[in-house]
Design a protein that fits this description.
Blueprint lengths: L2 E5 L27 E8 L2 E8 L2 H5 L7 E3 L3 E3 L2 E14 L5 E12 L6 E12 L6 E4 L3 E7 L5 E3 L3 E3 L1 H7 L6 E8 L5 H32 L6 E5 L2 E5 L1 H7 L1 H8 L4 H5 L1 E3 L6 H13 L8 H13 L3 H24 L1
Parallel strand pairs: 14-16
Antiparallel strand pairs: 1-2, 2-3, 3-13, 4-6, 5-6, 6-7, 7-11, 7-12, 8-9, 8-10, 8-13, 14-15
Length: 335
């Protein structure tokens, strides 16, 4: 499905009413799920893949109400709009499973904006290990008219038959839901969009190859020349990588009289968890953070980045906190 770039995920705490797709029902609790988002670029279209890792367990939990929401994502043409996918279990009058309902939701960041969005998109269910498609929606034209005081709006429900879900889960316990966004420009606009997406796909591919090679160096302790230590946990790293990322540690390693320079060792005494330090070390080589990182870990990483002047990591953490804050404000405004 093209080159992929992982992004961090969030959980949900709101849900569409069973009777309406334009209002939310505060009486229904959205099921928290272990899910991630990734982006795939393919010529003129961009696909947003929502992977629900624990879908098999959710499906067999015997809950009568299952209501799942994807992490938020942004579409290239609408930077101030947050989008989500929503998967809802529908029951018939006899209490048996009827089908699954799939929606796309658009939420704006500010109440005072009035926005009209026309999105051409298509939903798919795909196999986690291949491009095998078990279900396809028709090409959809969703028009979202977000008035001045209207925070969000749902698309029309798409019905997924039960057998399509079962087919996808035949060999794996996870579910992939894909929303493919189509760009409708004709002529020069269409060609321009194709060029931009091809450049983005090439950039992502080169980025992943480059960082994979750096990470191989980290996992090979035989080439390490210094360590990072936190609460007795030792991370074998490379001095030039650490110095390139951290202005503070660069200065200390260049000072022949510093403890770090004498012992080729960085001791982290900050009051942070071991997971935050591990993510810090991983970031030095991979330039990315895990998709399931939580708010506390982001705060701790931001503290470390600020302490050691790792400016790229600091900016990333600040962006992630702002993104989470925007999502929380959007969700509160929808209730």
């Amino acid at each position: 499905m093209g080159s992929q770039l992982s992004v961090f995920g969030t959980h949900s705490n709101e849900s569409p009413s069973n009777d309406s797709i334009t209002k939310t029902n505060p009486q229904t609790n959205t099921s928290k799920n272990n899910s991630t988002m990734s982006i795939a670029v393919d010529d003129t279209n961009i696909s947003y893949q929502w992977t629900i890792n624990d879908f098999f367990e959710i499906l067999h939990s015997r809950r009568r109400k299952i209501d799942l929401k994807s992490p938020s994502f942004r579409v290239l043409d609408y930077p101030n709009i947050l989008f989500n996918m929503r998967l809802v279990l529908r029951m018939d009058s006899s209490g048996n499973i009827s089908h699954w309902g799939l929606f796309l939701k658009a939420s704006k960041s500010f109440f005072y904006d009035e926005v009209t969005i026309n999105i051409s998109h298509k939903f798919k269910l795909t196999s986690p290990r291949s491009d095998l498609v078990s279900w396809n929606s028709n090409l959809l034209e969703s028009v979202f008219h977000l008035e001045k005081w209207k925070r969000n709006q749902w698309s029309v429900e798409n019905c997924i038959p039960i057998h399509a879900i079962k087919e996808t889960l035949r060999s794996f316990g996870m579910l992939n839901v894909v929303c493919e966004i189509m760009h409708k420009e004709n002529g020069d606009g269409f060609i321009y969009r194709s060029i931009i997406n091809q450049k983005l796909k090439s950039f992502i591919s080169n980025y992943e190859r480059y960082n994979a090679q750096l990470y191989e160096m980290y996992t090979s302790t035989s080439t390490s020349d210094c360590t990072i230590v936190h609460r007795g946990k030792v991370f074998w790293v490379h001095k030039f990588i650490v110095m390139a990322q951290s202005l503070v540690l660069k200065e200390r390693f260049m000072d022949e009289n510093s403890e770090e320079s004498k012992g080729n060792c960085v001791i982290i005494n900050e009051a942070v968890g071991i997971s935050a330090v591990k993510m810090l070390v991983d970031y030095l080589y991979k330039a990315r953070l895990p998709s399931d990182i939580n708010r506390r870990e982001i705060d701790e990483l931001l503290h470390l980045a600020d302490t050691y002047k790792i400016n790229n990591l600091k900016l990333l953490c600040q962006e992630m906190l702002n993104f989470q804050l925007t999502s929380e404000i959007t969700q509160r405004g929808a209730k």
